[in-house]
Design goal:
The protein is an alpha/beta fold. The protein contains 16 helices and 13 strands. Helix content is 43%, strand content 16%. α4 links the parallel β4 and β5.
């Protein structure tokens, strides 16, 4: 069976997409990938996959996407590209990633003249998430990008797909409750669980930080933005610094453009300039080396519909690294962490500070919780154990 996977990105850096492709490829499916290739940049091939890249300037892509709800040129272009993609490769199933690509996928199938099913893979609660992005904020930007339209379009776009993949039971149940015409059988659950071999050493890593021996390291890994709670954490760390706790805060990831000034003002302030290390980017293969020097990991996401749609990759990365987690009370991550006793949950900044202080003062508790999380991933929350959800969905369609 020939599967067409469509992603409106470069794909090489999307862990979820690559993980699913490996599962399908490993079970005998022939995979074809349609994605962007930005600014003529050379992209590495993906073993065993035929890739069609749409070459486009990244700024032009961003502009077209920005105006999608006002002038749907972005959708028309993708619809045309998907039509050609289906015909050229004689595809049997189309696997589309992200809600906003659903209509383009359905239209591409229709234009191709092929009667093939479509799977829609939801990486997030997009109708809510898009309203939190900085590029949709402000009177003019909001008027032109019309982020509120996605709430109105959600039911329509979900309806184009024969099957839908979501991150969690909670996200599925929320959609079924809002749209009773969609049965639970329409959905498959595919959480962002890791591959068990991703923490295996990939050669010697030269760390971009130098932490004094005996200093506790608190790690945040991922995109740095207000919506992800980074400034809440920094406020807590200012309090901990004033109380002379021995720690450094290691922040690994890119900073949202609109939050850059605020972030760097924080980390260069008198209270934190000796306490915060920022590493803008690392390859995932380097993460184990940084987890090795880490004592506590944090996931300070703001509690909202997006962060309650599933569990972020970083939570499982932390668990696989055998580290205790301090996390906000977003329901899916709270349920996981409390079930396996692999960290501490907080509801406000005061409780976050108490949780971090507790772990800073109790190394044995850190080790015990870290091992609890590691065992949960090894025994249950890994690709090998959840892949049957994806494979069963494909078998149903075939």
């Amino acid at each position: 069976m020939k599967i067409g996977v469509v992603v409106d990105n470069e794909a090489n850096y999307d862990k979820r997409v690559l993980r699913e492709i490996e599962i399908l490829k490993g079970n005998g499916y022939e995979i074809f990938l349609l994605c962007f290739g930005f600014n003529q940049k050379a992209c590495s091939p993906i073993d065993g996959i035929k890739i069609t890249r749409i070459r486009i300037n990244k700024k032009i892509k961003d502009i077209l996407f920005f105006f999608l709800n006002l002038i749907p040129v972005y959708e028309f272009l993708w619809s045309f590209a998907i039509k050609k993609f289906i015909i050229a490769n004689s595809l049997g199933i189309l696997h589309i990633h992200d809600l906003y690509m659903s209509k383009a996928g359905w239209s591409g199938i229709k234009k191709s003249g092929k009667r093939i099913p479509m799977i829609l893979d939801l990486h997030e609660n997009y109708p809510y998430t898009v309203t939190t992005y900085n590029w949709t904020k402000g009177l003019v930007r909001n008027f032109l990008s019309k982020p509120g339209e996605w709430q109105k379009k959600e039911k329509e776009y979900l309806g184009y797909a024969e099957k839908i993949i979501v991150l969690s039971d909670e996200f599925r149940d929320n959609l079924v409750e809002r749209y009773p015409e969609f049965s639970k059988n329409k959905f498959a659950i595919m959480p962002n669980v890791p591959d068990l071999d991703q923490m295996e050493p990939k050669g010697k890593v030269s760390l971009k930080v130098n932490v004094k021996k005996g200093t506790s390291v608190i790690l945040y890994f991922g995109i740095i933005a207000e919506r992800r709670g980074i400034f809440d954490a920094l406020e807590v760390f200012i309090q901990l610094a004033k109380e002379n706790h021995h720690f450094v805060f290691l922040v690994i990831g890119p900073v949202d453009k609109k939050d850059r000034k605020r972030f760097f003002n924080y980390i260069n302030s008198e209270s934190l300039r000796e306490r915060v290390y920022h590493v803008p980017w690392i390859d995932l293969s380097e993460l184990p080396a940084y987890l090795e020097i880490t004592d506590i990991c944090i996931a300070p996401f703001h509690k909202n519909p997006q962060h309650e749609s599933g569990i972020a990759n970083k939570i499982f990365d932390y668990m696989l690294g055998k580290k205790p987690i301090v996390a906000s009370d977003c329901r899916p991550q709270q349920k996981l962490i409390e079930t396996y006793n692999c960290g501490l949950i907080y509801k406000n900044d005061k409780e976050m500070k108490e949780a971090i202080t507790t772990l800073l003062s109790d190394k044995e508790l850190c080790i015990r919780m870290g091992l609890n999380g590691y065992n949960a991933v090894m025994e249950e929350y890994n690709t090998a154990n959840v892949k049957n959800q994806l494979l069963s969905l494909y078998k149903d369609l075939i």
